[in-house]
């Protein structure tokens, strides 16, 4: 098990060691990463079609999804407002219209890809023995590209260390999410390390679902994907509503997506002062997602 985890972790490290200066190469890598995510999610749908007692397993996936989502969200949202009281962040009160519906649809299309994979697997009665091996190989390439993206995201170690608020927000999310994962694991009667792995997605639904599905199976992978997707969708709703009064809460709950997907919402609703905090917090959590998931799966 440990050697398999190290093999999966290696491409991420190798990718992180590669600095890229040319914008067109980075754009190519970003495009290919998005395409690989869609391919692996379609394969996830196919693997779900191969499960025995599918209706029962879908019920288990939904049970896991909502138990983890509620446990982690409650723990996050109990702690983050205290950070707003102790260390408030100034925001701008100028609001601009945002295409939130379009952003929701962008997230929703990934659910459609998984569903299409499931439907194809059920209707065509395919031999699905190849799916797991294909997913593993594509995952290695995806992790390599993710490592390159993290290295070339524009954040230096100095910038991260100097932005103490971003670091603290990330630390609060880390601790409270893991606590929520332990609570969910106890409620569900599953191993604690599985609960900790499930709690380590921090909103990065595509990578969390893929890594956990590869390490713990399709049921956990499907639940991890839906859990983190629900987090992102709730964050898109919460940020415009909360950021002026509770900016640290809004930024923190966005998790890993605060450095990319939800960053435009944070900037437009909270102002430019929120941006460095969001980028640092999101970067740290993004970096921790593959590290923690792979670590907890290996225990």
From TrEMBL:
Keywords: Membrane, Transmembrane, Transmembrane helix. The chain crosses the membrane at residues 6-24, 36-55, 61-83, 104-126, 138-154, 166-190, 202-226, 233-255, 275-297. The keyword Protease does not apply. InterPro entries: LysO (IPR005642). Coiled coil: none annotated. The keyword Transmembrane applies. This is Lysine exporter LysO family protein. It comes from Photobacterium piscicola.
